[in-house]
Amino acid sequence: MPERVVVVGHSAITCLGRDMDATWQGLMECRSGLKSHEKLSPDRYLRDVAGLVEGYDPGTPTEEALVSRLEAKSIHMAIAAARMALADAGLDRIQASDDYDPHRVAVCVGSAFGGQDLLQLELDRSSRRKTNSVGPYLVPGMIINQASGQIAQHFNAYGPSVSPANACAAGGHSVAMAAMHLVAGEADFAICGGTESAFTPSIVNGFATMKALANRKEGDRAHTDPSQASRPFSADRMGFVMSEGAALLVLATESAARKWGLPVQAELIGWGTNSDGYHVTTPHHDRIAYLLKNTLSRAKLSPSQVDYYNAHGTSTVVLDRLETEVLKEVLGQRAREIPVSSIKGAIGHALGAASAIEAAVCVHSLMEQRVPPTINHVPDPELDLDFVPNHSRPANLEVVVSASFGFGGTNNVLIFKRGDQ
């Protein structure tokens, strides 16, 4: 019988805070980390509202000289998140033990864009110098698997390593693939999740011109208050707000967690991935419904056992409606009985890191027995579920579900069960 997969540590870095506690506190207080940034100047960017994480800009001094030279913000945040997650798990104190085998530690960290900020930095430098030469660390700092590679290097993790680039589902896919490594017997522990910093003119303006990003037009409530630009499931939703961040989970087989006396924060009882095979950007109702049903079935769960659904909830007109319809089909009456919330109103959409951040929040929700709110919410008569509007609340949580859907039709579902911490 395959081993149970448990969560023994987790971390998050978001625009609400540079660790999990600060992020959680911001969510519980219904605060937004989104604002207008001078960095996103109108002479280069079509949107100025974002969820930026301050203090991890390219070139930020760290104790690892090589990381400073790499100058990719996603790598900086990934290493910081890994350090916090390992400390939360207690692995940092047992790594020196003779019984600890670093070859049994997997690393799975995904991203949609990797070090594109470093590419932009080098392009700007080349333009100023009027030369075609670039720095020697451009390629190693830009490739998507470098976050996993740097974590492996800095924290002595020599097991399997993968780096899904599956758009907005990349972090969730990384968690699923890490669980597969554990169940297959290839590792005892896994450091997994996502990291993202993609604020370059071409990426921001690309999302803007395809009308995916919220636009603060005159007369809109976000025109004078940028923190209200992201409003999932709201009647006046108008697109997502880009953000950045990182979140990592430390997974373990149950036997490894028991051997080392690590607290079980949650159990990962289900994971699933599939493809829409349908459209460049628009998800397919039937494929998402199939994935949710199949993942619940494989976890041996009925709809009545789901206590909270952490939504993809991007604040786009089409996807929020589609996700609501899918939940009604898959969960039936239970969809109207449970809380359904999206934290993207508070932290925006961190692209490849979003599903990892949401997974970390799900684990924290189980530990705290509270549900984060959907802020900036104005009821939409067509979307009639309990979206936990504008206030967090206590809840009796045993099983929570988190889902993510990425461009290109790449989907992911994770199911967590309350641990025995």
Tell me the β content. Answer: 15-25%
Q: Main sheet: which strands, in order across?
A: 5-4-6-7-1-8-14-13-9-10
Number of domains: 1
Number of strands: 14
- CATH architecture classification: 3-Layer(aba) Sandwich
Helix content bin: 25-40%
- Computed structural class: alpha/beta
CATH fold call? Peroxisomal Thiolase, Chain A, domain 1
So, the CATH homologous superfamily? Thiolase/Chalcone synthase
Strand count, sense and barrel status of the largest sheet are: 10 strands, mixed
Apparent shape: globular
**Termini separation (Å)?**
24 Å
Q: Which parts are unreliable, with pLDDT below 50 for 5 consecutive residues or more? A: none
Mean pLDDT: 94
Q: Tell me the name of the CATH class.
A: Alpha Beta
Our Rg estimate from Cα atoms comes to 20 Å
Total number of helical segments? 16
At a glance:
The chain has helices at residues 20-28, 65-70, 73-89, 91-94, 116-129, 138-142, 146-155, 170-183, 201-209, 221-224, 254-260, 285-298, 317-331, 334-337, 344-347, 354-368, and strands spanning 5-13, 35-36, 49-50, 105-110, 161-162, 189-196, 245-253, 266-275, 308-310, 340-341, 370-371, 393-394, 399-406, 410-418. It has 421 residues and is of the alpha/beta class.
